[in-house]
Structures are given as C-alpha cells and as structure tokens.
Amino acid sequence: MCNSIFLEALQRAGSGDAAAVDEVMELAYPELKRQARHALAMERHDHTLQPTALVHEVWLKLNGEQGMYESRARFFGLASRAIRQILVDHARKRLTAKRIGWSTHVVLDEEVLLSGGIPLPLMLALDQAIDKLADMDQRKARVVEMRFFAGMEDGEIAHVLAVSERTVKRDWIFARAFLFGVVHGEGA
Predict the structure, then answer these.
(1) Dihedral of CA 41/42/48/53: which sign?
(2) pLDDT in tens, 161-188
(3) What is the pLDDT of residue 114?
C-alpha cells in the first residue's frame, strides 16, 4: 500500500468524503487481511471465522469509530483492538454454546500461543488479563493487542504508539510476564 495515497484517502474520509471511505477500505484491505490471518493462525484449528469474514467484521466495528481517520497508525491500532474484541466475543459465544464454565483451568504458555489452537477458556482468560493490564498501563495493553492479535512488528507498534522500539520491547516483556501471572493466579 502506498502510504501517501492511503494518508490522502484517510484525510478525505475524515472530512466526510463517502467515496474516500471506500478507498480507505480498498487500500487497507490487504493489511487487514494479513492481520486477520495472523490472528486466526493462533486460534483453534476448527475456528469458524475465516480471514475475509474477520476483516469484514473489523470494518463494521471500525466504521464510525471516533478518530479512525486521524492517521495510519490510529487506523491500524483501532483495527488490532477490533480483532481482539471480535475474537473474544466469538470465544464467549462458543463457550456459552458448549456450556463450559469459566472455572476451566487454562495454561498460558508461549508454545501454545505460537502453535495455534488457543483453547477458548485461555482466550477469555487472556482477554480479562489484558483488561487488568490496561487498568494499570494502557500502552502495555496496546502493545499486546497489536503484537498478539494483529501480528505487528516492534517497529510498526513503536510508530503507532509514538515510542521507541526499545520501549515496545520492554513493554512486551513486562506485559507477557504480567499476563502469565494473572492467568495463573499469581498476579493482580
């Protein structure tokens, strides 16, 4: 995606140009689809959402979001949060349908997270842990959302948050330890 064309389309969309809103979606679609593939690659193998459907749900969730056209960073930052919310809502619905209780034991382990097939109870426990982290430090919670749910690299996250890559790395290390502690009942 050509950054200057995307930025111009964002500005026009932010000014109320309806045709530019469609152009933003068209230009953002490949990146949103990449983020959706990343997020779904970490999900259970029998997940019912497909990348295209997830992108469309993200777009619906983003549409009308306050400040979504401010910048590329803001747009994709909001998209990573929307991906998280959609996947968590989907997990909640599946758990309710299966009548699995919240007390199910979950294991937060990097191998499980990276290998795919995140169990539904773990997704929900992780969501609650991210909310606790956000109560303590919004930026660290955003780092988790962008890295884990959108598959963004440290440099991209640093740009979105207007901090250094080193800060992103420190935030990630802290957040990972915090989330592990919360999910395992050792923290906050």
Answers:
(1) negative
(2) 899 999 999 999 999 888 888 877 755 5
(3) 47
Model confidence band, residue 112 (pLDDT cutoffs 50, 70, 90): very low
Helix (H) or strand (E) holding 111: helix 110-115
DSSP string covering 26-77: HHHHHHHHHHHHHHHHTB-TT-S--HHHHHHHHHHHHTT-TTTTS-HHHHHH
How buried is residue 44: exposed, middle or buried, by Cβ count under 10 Å (0-12/13-18/19+)? middle
User: Contact 112/173 with Cβ under 8 angstroms?
Assistant: no
List the Cα angle 175/180/185 in 5-degree steps. Answer: 125
Give the pTM: 0.62
Residue with structure tokens 């690659």?
Answer: 41
Rounded distance between C-alpha atoms, residue 129 and residue 127, angstroms? 5
- Please tell me the distance from the alpha carbon of residue 73 to that of residue 168, in angstroms, as a whole number: 15
* Distance, CA of 184 to CA of 175 (rounded, Å): 14
pLDDT at 26: 92
Helix H or strand E encompassing 11: helix 3-14
Nearest-angstrom CA–CA distance, 159 and 175: 19
